[in-house]
From TrEMBL:
This is Beta-galactosidase. Residues 11-326 form the Glycoside hydrolase 35 catalytic domain. Residues 371-482 form the Beta-galactosidase 1-like first all-beta domain. GO terms for biological process: carbohydrate metabolic process. Residues 500-558 form the Beta-galactosidase galactose-binding domain. Signal peptide: none annotated. Keywords: Glycosidase, Hydrolase. It comes from Paenibacillus rhizosphaerae. The active site is at 158 (proton donor), 234 (nucleophile).
Amino acid sequence: MSTFRYSGSAFYMNDEPVQILSGAIHYFRVVPEYWEDRLIKLKACGLNTVETYVPWNLHEPQKGEFQFEGIADLVKFIELAGSLGLYVIVRPSPYICAEWEFGGLPSWLLADSDMRLRCYHQPFLDHVDDYYDVLLPKLKPLLCTQGGPVIALQIENEYGSYGNDKPYLNYLKNAMISRGMDVLLFTSDGPEDAMLQGGMVEDVLATVNFGSRARESFEKLREYQPDAPVMCMEFWDGWFDHWREEHHTRPAEDAAFVLDEMLSLGASVNFYMFHGGTNFGFWSGANGHTEDSYEPTVTSYDYDALLNENGEPTDKYFAVRDIIAKYKPLAADGLPDPIAKKAYGKVAMTELAPLAGNLDRISAAVRSPYPEPMEKLGQNYGFIQYSTLIPGPRPKEELFIQDLRDRALVYLNGELAGTLDRSEPDTKIEFAVPPGGVQLTLLVENMGRINYGPYMKDRKGITEGVRHGRQFLSDWTTYPLPLTDLSGLEFHSLQPQQGPAFYRGELQVHERADTFLSLNGWTKGVVLINGFNLGRYWNIGPQKTLYVPGPLLREGANEIVVFELYGTELPEIEFGEQPDLG
C-alpha cells in the first residue's frame, strides 16, 4: 500500500520525493499484443510513469452494454504497466478530447434532443453515474492505496477550454471520492487565465498543457496555485493530422530543448504523445472551431511522437532520452528487438458486391416522413443511406441538405450527380425533375464527431431535412450502414463498379509481421482485414498507407474487404514495408 501526494513544491511516494516523468500511450490505439513492447520502450527512455485516457464510448457502446475485453481491456493494460515497475496516471473523465470520436462521449447521448453535455444537467450526470458504477470499481484495486500502480486520476479534461460550471466539476470529484477513488485527483488546462479559472477545482491539483514556453506557462499556473508542484500534463511533442492537410512534424531538437527547460525547473512532465498509435475503425474525431468549420482527423495517430505509429523509436526518442540522462540515471534495460515488417506485395481483388444490391442483406429499411439522424436510429458510426422519390415535372432547382453531417454522395436514378461535403459549403448540385419523377438517393458518411470546442453536439447523417428548391422532401427510406456485420454480403466475380461497392480479395501469409497497406489508385473508403476495421483511406491525403499490425493477420488465408465509394483505376492493393503519412 502506498500514498502518492504532494507537499510544497514536490510530489512524494510515501515519504520519498519523486519527479513524474510520464508518457501517454492509449491502450485503445494499440493492439493488445503490442502493449508490453510499447511500455518497455517507455521505461527504457527513462520514464517512470505511463498515462492513458479512458474513452467512455469504447467501453459503453450502447447504453447499459459494457465491454472491457481485447483492445478495451483497461485493467490488463494497467496491470501490465505495474508489473514492469511503472506508475500509471488514468484520465477517466466523461470527456477526453484526444482527437477521438466525440471526445470519448458515447454517441447515444445525442438520441436525446434535450441532452446537454459536460455540465450540471441531471440526465447527463445520471449517465455518468451509471458509467462510473461500472468503471471505477474496476480501477479501485489498481490504486496505489490498494497496492496497485495507479497514482492519480483526472477529474475532467481541459474543462476551462469549454465551460466554467463548478458544480459540475465538483459533482465529478465527489462521484470519484464516493466510489473509493482515494488517490491524487487533478485537472489539466491551458496556461491561460480563463482556462484555469474555468477548469480548476478546490482541493484538486491543477496541471497545465502546452508545447512550448514552459517557464511562462508554469508562472501562470503558480499565479493560481502557488503552493504545489508544477506539472505539464500534456507536453505536445508533435501534432495530429487532418485530411487535406500536410503531415505535421516537429524537430526532435526543438522538443528536447523544451523538455530540458522543464526538467531544469524541477517540473514533472507527461509526453503527449509518447506513442500515438492508430484510430482504427471509425474512432477518429474532428475539429470544428466555428459553426461552419469541420476538419476530420486521419486514421493514423502517429503524432510525430517518440515512437512512431508502428512503435519504432524515432530521432525524437533518442533526443529525449539524452536529455533525461542529464538529470537521472537510465535503467540498464535495453530496447526490445524490432518488430518484424514484411512487404507481402500486391493482392488482386477478385470479387465485388455492389452496395445497391446488398442493402437488405446488411441492413434493415426504416420508413419515416423525414430523414432521421443516426443517433435517433440507434446507429453510432459508419454510413447511412436515405432515398425518396421526387415527383415531376419540376424546373431546375438546387438541392439543399440542411445540416449535412458530414459528406453525401448524391444519386439521381442511380447515377452519381455529385458530392456534398460540410467542409466544402460552396459546392452546389442542381437538377430538373422529369415528368416521371426522379429517385433521389443520398449516401451519407459520418467522418467523425467533433471532439473539441463549443460545437460538440454533432449529430450525424441528415439532422434537419432535404429540400429541392424551397420545398422540403418527405417519405424517406433509410438504411443504417455501420458496417459492423458484413456477413450477409453476396459477392460475385469482378465487374465494372457501378456505385459504392465492396471488393474482396485474399492475402496469403506464411509468417505474420507488421505491414503497410497502400491503396494507390483507389479513391475513398474503408478497409477490413479478417473483419477488423483498419479505418478510412482517402486519396486527398496526407495519409497514403494504412498500418496493419501483424497480430491482425493469420497464418494462411486472410480476407481483405475494401468498401470503395467511387471507383478504382485497378482493383488491387499492395502491402509494403514502409508507412507513407504524406
